[in-house]
Design a protein that fits this description.
- The termini are far apart.
- The protein is flat, with a radius of gyration of 22 Å.
- It has a single domain, classed as Double Stranded RNA Binding Domain.
- By secondary structure, it is of the alpha+beta class.
- 46% of the residues lie in helices and 27% in strands.
């Protein structure tokens, strides 16, 4: 019975061997993607949402490892933070809000000012409006903190994919 399960598992895994699936952070901290992420500086972003997003980005970029010879890229980010009322109750008060955080970002190579990536990322969250104004404000702030982390994760994933693509393209061009 165990032999059948082992044979089945091996046969099921065979198609994956040729699919071209590769780990994103191949080589660990010394890999091309990790080094590229560690070489990104994030200048100040306007507003409270910008401060939260910049901190989230720096936390994730610094986790990739120390930059070798200083920053190689600059990540410019512009934010759009909106809070809108959605559900009207019978007494004409808002019962639900939606907070939306959108970021337009550009990864710029410092030596040449070439724009490596120009994209957007965003996330939104629903907030229940309750009778306590303090609780509603706290929920709005918590939503902003969570959205900034989610947008930072999306930006980082996009940057990592681009850096991996650039590294594999540069490696393929060499003799």
């Amino acid at each position: 019975m165990k032999l059948r399960a082992l044979v089945f598992a091996l046969l099921a895994a065979m198609p994956l061997a040729g699919c071209g699936l590769q780990p994103m952070y191949a080589g660990g901290g010394s890999g091309a993607v990790a080094q590229g992420l560690a070489g990104i500086e994030v200048p100040a972003i306007e507003g409270k949402a910008g401060w939260l997003l910049r901190n989230a980005l720096n936390d994730r970029l610094n986790a990739a490892g120390p930059a070798g010879a200083g920053p190689r890229y600059r990540l410019d980010v512009r934010l759009d933070d909106r809070l809108e009322g959605l559900g009207l109750l019978s007494d004409d008060t808002i019962g639900r809000e939606r907070r939306t955080l959108r970021a337009r970002y550009q990864l710029v190579e410092l030596g040449t000012d070439r724009i490596v990536i120009d994209a957007t990322a965003g996330a939104d969250a629903g907030i229940d409006v309750v009778s306590s104004e303090y609780a509603t404000i706290a929920a709005e702030q918590t939503a902003l903190e969570n959205l900034s982390k989610e947008v930072a994760d999306r930006i980082l994933a996009s940057l990592a994919l681009q850096l991996r693509k650039d590294a594999s393209g540069a490696g393929a061009a060499r003799p």
